[in-house]
Amino acid sequence: MRIDFAFGAPDRLRSACQTAYKQHQAGRRLVVYCSDGARLSAFDRMLWDLDDISFVPHVLATDPLASETPVLLTAADPAGALPADQAAQAWLMNLDDGCPPGYDGYARLLEFVSGETGDRHAARQRWRVYQTAGHDLRSHDLAQPGS
Fold it and tell me: What interhelical angle do 12-25 and 37-48 show, nearest 10?
């Protein structure tokens, strides 16, 4: 499994919102995981306020419209957000401080890391877990043009 870490995000949630928009534009199904309900709610609000002309259709994974909506938000185990065959084609975005449960059922995992000390430390821990599990890890520096 490929896992992409985007380091140096000036604002972790804002960078994740911009990526969610790009993934939606590319026609990709995306599940966004965060066990912290306040952080997930902040991300939800940011998706609505991304800019005046951008729209990212999204709902909670428990919403009746979840099967028809391209971007799902969940604080629960993301393995249950989509049927296994759909998850195998979808990407998972992690906004949590720890590794998401059931992440290996997804086609790809996206991680965002700000410059804050606590965020960087938590990201290093996740990197080690993924590395030990033998995943294909990629690092992208958001401070560098073209990353």
Answer: 60
DSSP string over 4-17? EEEEEESSHHHHHH
Q: Tell me the per-residue pLDDT of 65-117, one tens digit each, with 9 for 90 and over.
A: 999 999 999 999 999 999 999 999 999 999 999 999 999 999 999 999 999 99
Hunting for tokens 């259709």 — which residue is that?
57
Q: Which of 22, 14, 4 is nearest to 93 (CA)?
A: 4
- Beta partners for 138? 4
Residue 65 CB: number of other CB atoms within 10 A? 11
* Neighbouring residues of 34: CB distance < 8 A, sequence distance ≥ 6: 40, 43, 73, 75, 94, 95, 96
For residues 1 and 104, is the Cβ–Cβ distance under 8 A?
yes
Indicate whether this model's pTM tops 0.90: yes
* Closest-CA residue to 50 (of 84, 77, 13, 23): 13
Contact 82, 31 (CB under 8 A): yes
| CATH node for 2-141 | 3.40.50.10110
